[in-house]
Design brief:
24 helices, 84% helix, mainly alpha, globular
């Protein structure tokens, strides 16, 4: 019986994993590595025979492990944490990913591997392991230190970029090529999807969770959370993205709710079980003979991961203004690969675009770098002291001067307040523009597929004009909000930048010109983007002009109502975020 085989396999997996992880815990080694070793023990490649028979079902359960693992990472995601270490996190993460992707491609090519293997190798080496780093810092009692907060910020940026990387790689694997225009379109669509998902999700999901939580039933809350998680993953899959993206995003949305800690407590045992199966499944697929066959590349790649990540992350942190000791601790804390590397390697294998040897190599490199992680973190301070002793004084002075110079560039007082206001306005404009574009993209995607519309309005020109016009009317409150924010930005910049000392007697006329030109240019660029996004339903020129004229008339008549409607939406969004912060 299939059910009996599954129960037997799960019993063998869990018992073996339990025994091995106890041993690894006593040896003070990462539990994740114990799961992988348990998978090797019960897998088909370990003599005398395979202890697991229903490997396909185990792989399916392992996919659930990916969902819960990425969902838990999303729950730990925080826009506020990212904002506190924003510049360092972005610079260090970009430096790491670019250098390691190039290094992986170069080494893969040098090994004589195919282009797709080398490309996937670069992606595998690019992303550090959030799970392993968090566990290591927790066990070492360093989670609250300054460098640890920087590491967490870098990991958040990495997770976001990794999701984009997975989307690009899956598209490349299917089409076999990726042009610059296609890359830009893919990234733009992903950014648009993320912005809209966060805005709409933060407006709706925390309120739904609060409503369910009011019944004070942990079972109801857990079922609701799981329903939202899998439902959103299904939506993301239907849009052509990976299930990992859906799980991460819905987790990050739920992280803004008051029930975040309750959800973490409820989901933790489910996550631990399925993530254990995920890591055991990695070990099941690992052929130890391949580790012997490819011992040379594994050793080289391990050295490349450690050296490359210490250099790229440390240098990125230093360039963004951190001192040398903190930068070194950041670099040595990120010198490993983990769960995203497994996901990328599994994806290449499942799509049939990478060689079979790449997966066990990725697992082996991850295992070795995982073992090294606690020792590298502990060695950061002694190494910093040693470097400080041997570093020539002139070089040390140059480094100190650079750090102090960057610190002096940070705005303070009125300049800092002005920068915060400008940043807030720009974010508001970007969000409103993203919502408008999302409405037109959705209309262009869904409208032509509704057969009922074709039956009601046979003329395609009229039907497209109606779809485009309806979408334009729905998006008017967001267009009005974007215009008002651009107007506020232009007035602020005109007041600050166009001064009597610069413009003399033309100060007021120049300010009026700046105040009018910026909103016009901004709306013109947005209209170009709308035209590109709604190409499939764009009406002919005469109908388009008629629709715009009607829209302008309605805007004039309903201006105040649109402003009030958008204000209520913005207040609701801020209230939802404030609830998440207070929790």
């Amino acid at each position: 019986m299939h059910g009996a085989e599954l129960i037997r396999d799960l019993a063998i997996i869990m018992f073996t994993a339990g025994v091995v992880t106890v041993v690894f815990h006593r040896l003070r080694q990462p539990v994740v590595l114990g799961y992988i070793v348990a998978g090797v023990i019960v897998g088909p490649h370990t003599p005398p025979f395979s202890l697991v028979h229903d490997e396909k079902t185990i792989e399916t359960l392992a996919e659930l492990g990916v969902v819960f693992l990425l969902f838990s990472l999303g729950l730990e995601f925080s826009l506020r944490k990212l904002a506190r270490v924003g510049v360092t996190a972005v610079v260090a993460a970009l430096a790491e990913i670019l250098l390691m992707a190039w290094l992986g491609w170069t080494l893969g090519t040098a090994f004589g591997w195919g282009p797709m293997d080398a490309l996937f190798l670069g992606a595998i080496l690019a992303i550090s392991s959030t799970t392993i780093i968090v566990k290591a810092l927790d066990e070492l009692g360093m989670k609250q230190e300054r460098f640890a907060q920087l590491v967490f910020g870098i990991l958040i940026v990495e997770d976001i970029l990794a999701i984009g990387m997975i989307a690009l790689l899956s598209g490349l694997a299917v089409t076999g090529a990726l042009s610059a225009a296609q890359t830009a379109t893919t990234i733009g669509a992903l950014v648009l999807f993320l912005v809209v998902s966060f805005v709409v999700g933060i407006l709706l999901v925390p309120r739904l969770l609060a409503y369910v939580a009011a019944f004070e039933s942990r079972e109801m809350l857990l079922v609701t959370v799981l329903g939202l998680c899998f439902g959103f993953c299904l939506l993301v899959l239907s849009m052509g993205y990976s299930v990992a993206l859906g799980a991460f995003v819905i987790g990050a949305i739920m992280a803004e709710s008051r029930q975040r800690h309750t959800i973490e407590a409820l989901i933790e045992p489910v996550r631990d079980m399925f993530s254990a199966i995920f890591f055991v499944a990695i070990g099941i697929l690992l052929d130890p003979r391949a580790l012997v066959t490819y011992a040379g590349p594994i050793a080289i790649l391990t050295l490349a991961v450690v050296a490359g990540k210490v250099l790229s992350c440390g240098l990125g942190a230093f360039v963004s203004g951190q001192d040398g000791r903190t930068s070194l601790r950041v670099g040595m804390g990120l010198a490993q690969i983990g769960e995203f590397s497994f996901i990328i390697a599994s994806m290449g294998l499942a799509l049939g675009v990478t060689s079979h040897f790449l997966y066990p190599i990725a697992v082996a490199v991850s295992a070795v770098t995982t073992l090294l992680t606690p020792y590298l973190i502990r060695a950061a301070d002694p190494l910093a002291d040693a470097l400080a002793r041997v570093m020539p004084p002139p070089v040390a002075r140059v480094f100190e001067t650079y750090t102090a110079w960057l610190g002096s560039l940070q705005p303070s007082g009125d300049r800092a307040a002005l920068a915060r206001i400008v940043r807030r306005i720009v974010i508001h404009v970007a969000v409103n523009c993203a919502l408008v574009l999302a409405l037109f993209v959705a209309s262009g995607h869904v409208g032509p597929r509704v057969e009922m519309l074709e039956a009601w309005v046979p003329d395609a020109r009229v039907r497209n004009a109606g779809l485009w016009g309806a979408t334009f009317l729905v998006s008017l409150p967001f267009l009005v909000a974007a215009y008002r924010k651009l107007k506020a930005l232009s007035l602020l910049l005109a007041e600050v930048q166009v001064t009597p000392a610069r413009a003399g007697q033309y100060t007021e006329p120049a300010r009026r010109v700046v105040a009018e030109v910026i909103p016009v240019i901004g709306l013109a660029l947005l209209f170009v983007l709308i035209t590109a996004a709604s190409g499939s339903i764009l009406p002919p020129a005469e109908l388009l002009m008629l629709t715009l004229a009607l829209g302008a008339l309605l805007t004039g008549l309903l201006w105040h109502r649109m402003v009030r409607l958008h204000a209520r939406l913005q207040i609701a969004l801020l209230d939802a975020r404030a609830d998440g912060e207070s929790d």
